[in-house]
Amino acid sequence: MRLFPAIDIQNGQCVRLRRGDFADSTVFGTDPVEVARNWEQQGARYLHVVDLDGARLGSPQNFGVVAAIAEALSIPVQLGGGIRTLEALDLIAQTRVARVIVGTAAIGDDAFLREALRRWGEGLVVAVDAQDGFIATHGWQKRTLVPVAELAEQLVTLGVNEVLYTDVSRDGMMRGMNIKAYEELAQQTTLEIIASGGVTTLEDLVAVKALEPMGVTGVIAGRALYEGSFTLAEALAVLGVD
Q1: Per residue in 1-12, pLDDT tens?
Q2: How far apart are the C-alpha atoms of 77 and 96, rounded to whole Å?
Q3: Catalytic choice (53, 129, 171, 204)
Q4: How many whole angstroms separate alpha carbon 234 and alpha carbon 79?
Q5: What is the helix (H) or strand (E) element at residue 80, kind and residue range?
Q6: Rounded to whole angstroms, how far apart are CA atoms 166 and 175?
Q7: Rounded CA separation 225/103 (Å)
Q8: Full set of structural domains in the chain with CATH
């Protein structure tokens, strides 16, 4: 099971939002590069970075900070937020970012997704952001009537291998994970799943670890790590990472 400490960047700072609300953020560091180094020093094997301003505005906004993070670390960095054009994909390809996450642009634009897959291959992950079982887009600001299972089926047909599945209602709220949602999606699709949203206690990690045989092979932790609900070392131990 892969554990991804999360670094969300807003106005050049490391923050966490509650339920994707850009007006409800908590600053956890003014130097995201230093925060990233700290996670690697503590034993992180992967890092998840989100350009929140990019997600809101539709194009990369914190590119310099992201490039510096990827350059400073020896572990793989995956990036999401505002990656909606081929130009954005080309820009990121100039950095040491290992994997890119597309969301909004993958909804209803099969041509873009096919080209993104051609360019990035297994380095491309599709963000499946949902509330009450339906897809949310544009930095979680817009709700659709597209069921999660329907989108997952389309993604498999197009050749996608992995998705980042976030329960928007739980994200940053410290209310626990919606384990049932991840289990249901895993039962409905052959996609590999990274679970995100609501990690609060080590018990959440134990529960998501139990879904690994079903295809849930990664989990993202943010606020719980920053607020000290558990340490990175404790999380890695629970997930069986040496």
Answers
A1: 999 999 999 989
A2: 8
A3: 129
A4: 25
A5: strand 77-80
A6: 14
A7: 25
A8: 2-238 (3.20.20.70)
* Whether 122 contacts 159, CB under 8 Å: no
Catalytic residue among 8, 51, 53, 167: 8
Q: Are 234 and 19 in contact (CB under 8 A)?
A: no
- Residue 51 · residue 21 · CB < 8 Å: no
Report pLDDT digits (tens) over 50-85.
Answer: 999 998 898 999 999 999 999 999 999 999 999 999
Could you tell me which residues are beta bridge partners of residue 235?
none
8 is catalytic: yes
Closest CA to 191 of 155, 236, 166: 155
72: phi then psi, degrees, rounded to nearest 5: -80, -20
pLDDT per residue as tens digits for the range 138-192: 545 566 667 888 889 999 999 999 999 988 765 544 568 999 999 999 999 999 9
Is 24 noted as a catalytic residue in this protein? no
The strand pairing partners of 127, in sequence order, are 164
The secondary structure of 125-162 as a DSSP string is EEEEEEETTEEEETTTTEEEEEEHHHHHHHHHHHT--E
Contacts (Cβ under 8 Å, ≥6 apart) of 209: 1, 238, 239, 240
